[in-house]
């Protein structure tokens, strides 16, 4: 599992970006990859990545305490 911080998440549109802790790469996250979790800007999260249409997508996103 990778870890990162939520840079931006628009709840009404259902998407945002996570910045990876190790690479500082921005990873796209869609509400379907949250598995019911609620995330907000600056939350620390763990996640996995999968190939999407325009690059990597975060999936199995979980908020860290």
From TrEMBL:
Main localization (coarse): cytoplasm
Keyword tags: Cytoplasm, Phosphoprotein
Protein's UniProt name: Cold shock domain-containing protein
PROSITE patterns: CSD_1, CSD_2
SMART domains (UniProt xref): CSP
SUPFAM superfamilies in UniProt: Nucleic acid-binding proteins
Compartments in which it is found: Cytoplasm
Domain spans labelled CSD: 1-63
InterPro entries: Ca-reg_mRNA-binding_domain, Cold_shock_CspA, CSD, CSD_CS, CSP_DNA-bd, NA-bd_OB-fold
């Amino acid at each position: 599992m990778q870890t990162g911080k939520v840079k931006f998440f628009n709840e009404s549109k259902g998407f945002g970006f996570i910045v990876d802790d190790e690479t500082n790469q921005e990873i796209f996250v869609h509400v379907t990859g949250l598995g019911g979790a609620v995330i907000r800007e600056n939350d620390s999260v763990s996640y996995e990545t999968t190939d999407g249409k325009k690059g990597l997508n975060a999936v199995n996103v979980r908020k860290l305490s």
